[in-house]
Amino acid sequence: MICLGSSYDWQFSVRIIIKLIIVEASQTFSSTHGELTVQGLDVPTGIIVGGLFPVHFGTMNNRQEFTKAPWYPNCTDFNPRVLRWAMGMVFAIEEINSNTTLLSNVTLGYTIFDTCYHVTRALHASLKFMEAVVVPPVPPDNKNSPCAVIGDMGSALSVITSHHLGLWYIPQVSYFSSCKCLSDKRLFPSFLRTIPSDAHQASAIALLVNYFGWLYIGTLAAHDEYGQSGVAQFVAEAEHAGACIAFRKILPKVFNANMIQHLGKTASKVILVFATEKDFLPLVNQLSELNATGKTWIASEAWVTSPQLTSLRHVNLLQGTIGVSLVRGKIPGLHEYLTGLGPRFFHMHEMSLEMTKTLSKHEQSPVFNIKHHPKNGMEFKWKINSIFSNNITPSEISAPSGKFSKYELTQFLYNSEYCYQCPKGYQSNEFHDSCVRIPTEYLTFSDPLAMFLSAFALLGIIITMAIGLLLFLHQDLLVVKASSIDGLLLVFLICCYISSVVFIGKPSNISCRLHNVLICVFLTLIVSCILTKTVRLYHFNNISDGAQWTSVKSLLREVSAFLLCAPQLLFCSIWAVTGSSRPFHNFDTRPGTIILECADRTPIWITCTFLYLGILVITCLCLAINAGNKCLAMNAYHNEAKFTTFSMISFILVCLAFVPAYSSTQGKVQFVIKTLAVITTNFSLLGCIFVPRCYTIVRKKNFSLDSQLVCEKLVMTD
Question: Where do the TM regions start and end (predicted)?
Answer without folding.
Answer: 449-473, 485-504, 516-538, 559-578, 604-625, 646-665, 671-691
